[in-house]
Amino acid sequence: MGNKNSCCSFGSPSPPARKAKAKDPPVFEEHLPEGDLSTNNLQHISEREGDDGDNLDPSVDPSAATLFLERSKQSLENGMTRKKSSHQIAPQGGLKKSSSCSTIYLDDSTVSQPNLKNTVKCVSLAIYYHIKNRQSERRMDIFDERLHPLTRDGVSDDYDRHNPEHRQIYKFVRTLFNAAQLTAECAIITLVYLERLLTYAELDIAPCNWKRIVLGAILLASKVWDDQAVWNVDYCQILKDITVEDMNELERQFLELLQFNINVPSSVYAKYYFDLRSLAEANDLSFPTEPLSKERAQKLEAMSRVMQDKYTAEAHRNGMKKWSSLDNIRNDPRRSVAILS
Q1: 174, 120 Cβ separation under 8 angstroms
Q2: Cα–Cα distance between 290 and 66 in angstroms, integer?
């Protein structure tokens, strides 16, 4: 039983190793030879470790740059930008809103509660740059619209030659989100799953497959993120000509290509959110701003006081001294009153 050359290459440690003392732990590396495959076609945890160096997965590692932002920079460096809509081309006579002592302008999009319309626009723009700056034409049959059409009319003969415009992608994504009543957070998770698919499956999103890839990512993101997930049969009510069997097969293969890794760390989610805002700023997609109301200011103040009390209590428990402001020292503090319009 103590023979290292056992027929079970990934078996549990031998009994003598389990009885070893704490100062002499068993050496598990002897039972996990590098490069070998696990038994029963199951991938061992050591085989799932990310590659060191440059091959970092942006959908898992928060320190890795997002793919869509890198590809958008390629277009900006080459002087190629997306076509602007009519209201963006027309000269804007109004001045940019700026905050003053009496009025503070804020947009209603935060990392915890993103703006739905602008987030969907930014995700559509990220997909647009993925298609436009794809590096190859690697495809899979499950995502090909000729083999699995979304409409009864099928596709044209040149369906894989012309890149879709940003507004065409936005219209498709917006229709799904409005009909299924999905949230802005779900849009960010959709983009994470899309880039994870491109990394894991080593394929490219192209004019021939972008709709089905986006549909599969939205389908999976809605089930993982939202408490009341949309069923596959509900998407068949939105896309009238698609069958439930096709939706089930699309979801199954999408999961398999992701290696059933549907976890999205909060740090990765935040990275994608702020990179989408950077993408919007670089492409003149401004988030709408509104004056800070009295009710919202009170909510922000209440939230900040709660966090301040929390960190103060933790500092006292750890024996750390915290400097007090003049308002906390004086018995009758004089606070300046802000005028909120």
Answers
A1: yes
A2: 30
In degrees to the nearest 10, what's the CA dihedral of 61, 184, 125, 209?
A: 80
Q: CA 291: distance to chain centroid? A: 29
pTM here is 0.69
Contacts 24+ apart (CB under 8 A), 93-97: 97/289
> Which residues sit opposite 105 in a β-bridge?
291
Which residue, 26, 20, 35, is CA-closest to 9?
35
**Please, what is the Cα angle at 181 between 178 and 184, to 5 degrees?**
85
For the purposes of burial, counting CB atoms within 10 Å of the CB of 238, is it exposed (0-12), middle (13-18) or buried (19 or more)?
middle
* Among the listed residues 57, 268, 190, 40, the one whose alpha carbon sits nearest the alpha carbon of residue 48: 57
68 phi and psi, to 5 degrees? Answer: -65, -35
Q: What would the pLDDT profile of 248-279 be if each residue is shown by its tens digit? A: 999 999 999 999 999 999 999 999 999 999 99
How many CB atoms neighbour CB 99 within 10 A?
12
- Name 246's bridge partners: none
Tokens for 309, please give them: 């009390």
CA 209, 210, 211, 216: dihedral to nearest 10 degrees? 90
Could you give the CA distance from residue 91 to residue 93 in angstroms, rounded to a whole number?
A: 6
User: Lowest-confidence range among 155-164, 208-217, 256-265?
Assistant: 155-164
